[in-house]
User: Fold this.
Amino acid sequence: MRGAVRAAVCVLSWALAGLACSGGQSSDTIVVGHVASMTGDTATFGRSADQGIRMAVEEVNAAGGVLGKKLEVVTEDDRSVTEEARSAAQKLIQRDQIKALLGEIASSRSLAAAPEAQRAKVPMISPGSTNPKVTEVGDYIFRACFIDPFQGAVMARFAADELHAKRFAILFDFKQDYSVGLAQFFRETVKKNGGEIVADERYTSGDIEFRAQLTTIRAANPDVIFVPGYYTELGLIARQARELGINVPLLGGDGWDSEKTLEIGGDAVEGYFFSTHYAADSDNPRVQEFVKGFTAKYGATPDGMAALGYDSAGILAASLKRADSTDGVKLRDAIAATSGFDGVTGKISIDANRNARKDAVVLKIEGGKFRYYRTVGAE
Amino acid sequence: MENLLQQLLNGVTWGSIYALIALGYTMVYGVLRLINFAHGEVYMMGAMSGFYTAHWLGFARAPSVTGLVVVLVASMLVCGLLGAAIERIAYRPLRGAGRLAPLITAIGVSLLLQNAGQLVFGADPKFFPPLLQSHEVFRAGEVAVSNIQLTVLVTALLLMGALEYIVQRTRFGRAMRAVSYDAPAAALMGVPVDRVISGTFVLGSMLAAAAGILVGLSNPKIDPLMGLMPGLKAFVAAVLGGIGSVPGAMVGGLLLGVIETLVTGYLSSTYRDAIAFVILVVILLFRPTGLFGAPTTEKV
Assistant:
């Protein structure tokens, strides 16, 4: 009997050791962390980016991996909460010993995570944070997207040139660095071009009642209303605006780029415009190939965040190859040297401020779908 | 002027939601001297049960008044039961244990429901199905009144009217007032105090459920943490009106909604949440019994 117990313990401990080995990082993978809002107010951002990243990593691994090893993605959910992005990054860096960090989409959360990556000298690429401050955190922080001064200026010029707007209203989320930045650069461009800001109102993420601000905006009689927030609030704002009899178009940025905009906004978002990183209905063969692969894999059309996730992982894999090492310093220099990377969101070059320079596209919401409207160049 | 009228309309509609939730706080306080901090979560459960009822019964796809009424009644029933269960499980065992223990339990129930909600429903916001097709009912100059705002306002007023009738005109209402006035004496007179308290929780929870449905109708984003802020605001509204006073909760709720809307419309939304708590502090400092509360001394 005692012998049997001892044998069982032996078998068990052997099995556990085996498990521990397969659970930990074996030396034939390179672990990459992803801080993402997999749940919460902007859950589609994190999920889309994660799907894009995993698809890119699978393609890299299928083609033989990098440095003779496979890439492995570990995703940590921050529940769309700013403070949790920081602890999620800490966990990935300390527990999982990641070689590089991907994420976040929301600028406030990237700003919370970035100091951790910078301190640990782990290169970080944000797929979609457009606020300029994000990469100013330090020389290990990069992004795969354009920045808000560009996006804000694009929409201000678009409103003036295409929609012949003279009177502009703004309704922004003052708790989100992204929204505050976009509103600021929109405001500056409008003023520079001789337009007039007739109403400048604010709300807080998580609000559901916007009728007070919208009534004030309605009284100012604007030609367009710029709402540079995230999709959850935008859907409610659009509905309440229509209820109050506001018929002028709403404009926004890439924070609208989610299927949920259409679900929550319904008919109320018809005919509105927003700037983003890529158009799924573009005729670029690179994009079409991506859309086909993504749709086959996940059964949904990829949104802008999925495309950015895909590109950020692609940039990382290419940089790892060029660095020929997972060493933080070498990898950082390789990412910084990225030039003309052929991504699905355009040709990406990393500039001296560690930002990606590329074009923006304007999409129009028409017939319950996002439709490509036009491309606006990077100056 | 038209702008002000529109803002007042926005404010009264928004405030009627606060009023419905505040009534639950005030009634429970009336009979138990307990601030039921789990009340905001009952409101959340109201919206959630409405969401699932609408989807199960197929009203989510075909907006109709019948659908709205069925969903409203169903979620009021669910939350009535929930309110009774909360009282039976969490508060009744603590009857007579002083005032602090039930208060802490209330906070515990609130946290339990928030986190259970995140587990069961998921932390993501849900889109409440449009039970009414939004359209404009009438317009006077600039002032636009939509059928949704009108429905929220009328439903809230009808429910408050019904409550006022129950409290003032029925046997149960009389028993409730008796328990509120002096529970031990009421018990000696043969009033079934436990049943009355249970019934009070049911009534309050049904009103909170109605508030949840009305918010789903006019601001269709719901999530497991949605009860937190409105719960606190409604508590402020109840204190503003005079906690324990039924008309006070109604007036307090409407007033708070109007104040918040005017602050947002004419100053800045930055102050919207702050103003409610400034009101709470000011009321507690200068008129702790609220607008409608009788200035009584603490019973010992």
